[in-house]
Design brief:
By secondary structure, the chain is mainly beta. The chain is 0% helix and 45% strand. The protein folds into 2 domains: 69 residues, Immunoglobulin-like (Sandwich); 168 residues, Immunoglobulin-like (Sandwich). The strands form 4 sheets. Strands 13, 14, 15, 16, 19, 20 and 21 form a 7-stranded antiparallel β-sheet that branches. Strands 2-9-8-5-6 form a 5-stranded antiparallel β-sheet, with no helix packed on it. A 5-stranded antiparallel β-sheet has the order 10-11-12-18-17, with no helix packed on it. Pfam families: PKD_4 (PF18911). Keywords: Signal.
Length: 286
């Protein structure tokens, strides 16, 4: 998942002008500006600094570069202080630093019109059974921005199946709905709708924990639908939840369960994991 972030940096003088040069003769300080695009541990620095004739990058991991716009591969996740040194034509040098945080990356790309990237996902894998109904297989992955779901089920896109995602977003048993459907979870958020039918709504739990009481939330763009493939009666689809849009999803853990229902709510089609089984735990501490 590629992220692009702009950085405008405060300039810190790193050298003193040679005595005897008048202020009029001094070259103006370089104006440091660059953008950062991350793709896993590979980071591309696009330098848009003006007023400089030479550059030196300190990537914060012991490596450096004198390229204007380098690409650097970091050794792993973590926080790195990146410093760009820019030298003006008169030798005057300024520097600007920023903090780069690299976290877990997912191979899933919702816009590639393919589901092949899920072959490399092993974060959470669930196999269906007779007790899970239409659900045959599911996978889950995450990065700093999204939580990704892959569902494989016996159905057809035109059926308009309704999905209910029960989310224990704060991993706190004292808040949220308690239900025998998915023990070891207290569900703060309910997402419900016919995702393939173009609607999916968000609700937050209110009131007593034993009460099925949820309030609708008006939050746009909290989910994204990716590739959908139909092969006979086998439906395969991917989607993502945007972590910054849903209460609690910025934390380090998530418990969830999913229920599929017919488009008129008359028939329960499947439950994942098996009904009355502990909810699925997604560890997002990386």
């Amino acid at each position: 998942m590629k992220r692009i972030l702009p950085y405008i940096l405060l300039l810190v003088p790193a050298a003193v002008l040679v005595q005897g040069c008048s202020q009029d003769e001094a070259a103006p300080d370089p104006d440091i500006f660059y953008q950062v695009a991350t793709n896993g541990m590979e980071v591309t620095f696009t330098n848009e600094t003006t007023g400089a004739t030479a550059y030196e990058w300190d990537f914060g991991d012991g490596e450096t570069s004198t390229e204007a716009s380098p690409t650097h591969t970091y050794p792993g996740k973590g926080k790195y202080v990146v410093t760009l040194y820019a030298t003006a034509s008169d030798g005057h040098r300024v520097e600007g630093s920023t903090i780069l945080r690299l976290s877990k990356n997912s191979p899933v790309k919702l816009t590639d019109n393919s589901l092949d990237d899920w072959n490399d996902v092993a974060t959470v894998t669930l196999e269906g059974s007779a007790e899970t109904g239409v659900f045959k297989r599911a996978k889950v992955d995450y990065d700093s921005e999204k939580i990704y779901f892959y569902l494989e089920m016996t159905s057809k896109a035109e059926n308009g199946d309704i999905f209910d995602f029960y989310l224990d977003t704060d991993n706190n048993a004292s808040t949220g709905l308690l239900t025998w459907y998915f023990p070891e979870g207290a569900y703060d958020v309910l997402l419900e709708g016919a995702v393939l039918g173009g609607w999916f709504d968000m609700f937050y739990h209110v009131g007593e924990q034993t009460a099925f009481s949820f309030e609708a939330q008006s939050v746009p763009d909290f989910y994204q639908l990716g590739t959908v493939q139909q092969e006979g009666n086998l439906l395969r689809m991917e989607m993502a939840l945007v972590r910054s849009k849903i209460k609690g999803l910025a934390g380090n853990a998530l418990r969830f369960g999913i229920v599929a229902t017919s488009n008129d709510w008359s028939t329960e089609l499947g439950v994942l994991p098996t009904k009355a089984t502990n909810a699925v735990m997604l560890d997002m501490s990386e």
